Structures are given as structure tokens and as C-alpha cells.
Amino acid sequence: xxxxxxxxxxxxxxxxxxxxxxxxxxxxxxxxxxxxxxxxxxxxxxxxxxxxxxxxxxxxxxxxxxxxxxxxxxxxxxxxxxxxxxxxxxxxxxxxx
Length: 97
Description:
The chain is mainly beta and 97 residues long. It is built from two helices and four strands. The chain has one domain (12-90): Surface presentation of antigens (SPOA) (Roll), CATH 2.30.330.
């Protein structure tokens, strides 16, 4: 008798068509809190201080829901210095966003 092919593992994502809908993830590197007077005076090359340091983790949001934290890195092999986020913490998302 011929052997049966292995049964592929079920991937719940393939059964639900909504798993194919693209979403937007916002990566937050920090927050600025200028007074309106300073905001109105902003011009090109102005500096807007943030509440974070360059090596602090970034936060990833879908809407207002924090879904993960990570570290910014340059994309390997990208001559133009593209960025990626290496995830260090991920929220439990089984019960929705």
C-alpha cells in the first residue's frame, strides 16, 4: 500500500478571510509636548525634543492598543538605511485587539 501524505497542520488564519485584511501598525518613538507658541513657531530644521532616548524601546500600536515593544534597527543590506523593529515584547492577542 502507498503511504498517505502527511496531514498539514491546521492554520486557523487560513480558515478566516479576515486574517488577510491589512492593518496599520504605528511605531511610537516618543512624545513631544510643546506649548502652542513653540508649535506655531516651528520651521524646517527646528528641533522637537522627545520624552525618550535614542536607545529606549519603541512601542507598537494598533489604534490606541499597545500590542508590542521593540528596538529600532537598520535593515540589513539596505544602502539607504531603512528601518525595522526587532520585537522584544508582544502582547497576548488571542482575545482580540
